[in-house]
Design a protein that fits this description.
The chain has 164 residues and is mainly beta. Helix content is 9%, strand content 51%. The protein has a domain at 3-30 and 46-129. The chain contains 1 helix and 10 strands, in the order E-E-E-E-E-E-E-H-E-E-E. The strands form 2 sheets. The protein has an 8-stranded antiparallel sheet with strand order 3-2-1-8-9-10-7-4. Strands 5-6 form a two-stranded antiparallel ribbon. A hairpin with a 2-residue loop joins strand 1 and strand 2. The longest helix has 14 residues, at 71-84. It starts with a strand and ends in a 35-residue tail after the last strand. Pfam families: Phage_P2_GpU. This is Phage protein U.
């Protein structure tokens, strides 16, 4: 088992006669932190960590019928995940990388035979980490609403108009 995305297993199997392979390539994982820059007169600014960015994954999947995969069926499942906003576990080997949603996909129908049978679809998908709940330790800063007072103006008061 190479990994799993939702209910789509990535693996290679061979029973002596038939091969079934669904693999991905070019897995790129990115993340980082968001920083606020505090300027100081005559000195270099200071950086303050504000929060941590959501993790992003990008990968390419080759859906090939000659490797025992129904390309249209797997693509339909990926599109369904994307359009429904389904939260997917992404497992690499035996390591759970986290929960993700598909934020975009790009599918190229590479080989189409007679009667429209699709033999190969290359799909690029972008996943973004999904955080289900807010951590209870987050501090919420509120400021009180400024009170306004009503002021009566004398009826002869001309509010900016030019008097004759």
């Amino acid at each position: 088992m190479i990994g799993v995305l939702g209910e789509i297993p990535f693996s290679v199997s061979f029973d002596g006669d038939n091969i079934e392979a669904l693999i991905f390539s070019n897995l790129k994982r990115s993340g980082g932190g968001n920083y606020e820059q505090h300027k100081r007169r005559g000195l270099k600014p200071l950086l303050e960590l504000v929060d941590i960015s959501l993790e992003k994954l990008n990968l390419e999947i080759s859906l090939r019928s000659d490797l025992g995969i129904n390309p249209k069926e797997v693509l339909r499942k990926l599109i369904g995940y994307s359009e429904s906003g389904e939260i997917l576990d992404f497992v690499l080997g035996e390591e759970l990388l986290g929960e993700f949603v598909i934020v975009s996909y790009d599918a190229g129908h590479e080989h189409i035979t007679n009667k429209g049978k699709v033999r190969k679809i290359d799909v690029s998908i972008s996943l973004e980490e999904y955080i289900k709940e807010i951590d209870g330790s987050i501090e919420i800063i509120t400021t009180p609403k400024k009170e306004t007072t009503k002021k009566n103006v004398h009826e002869d008061y001309n509010q900016g108009a030019i008097s004759p």
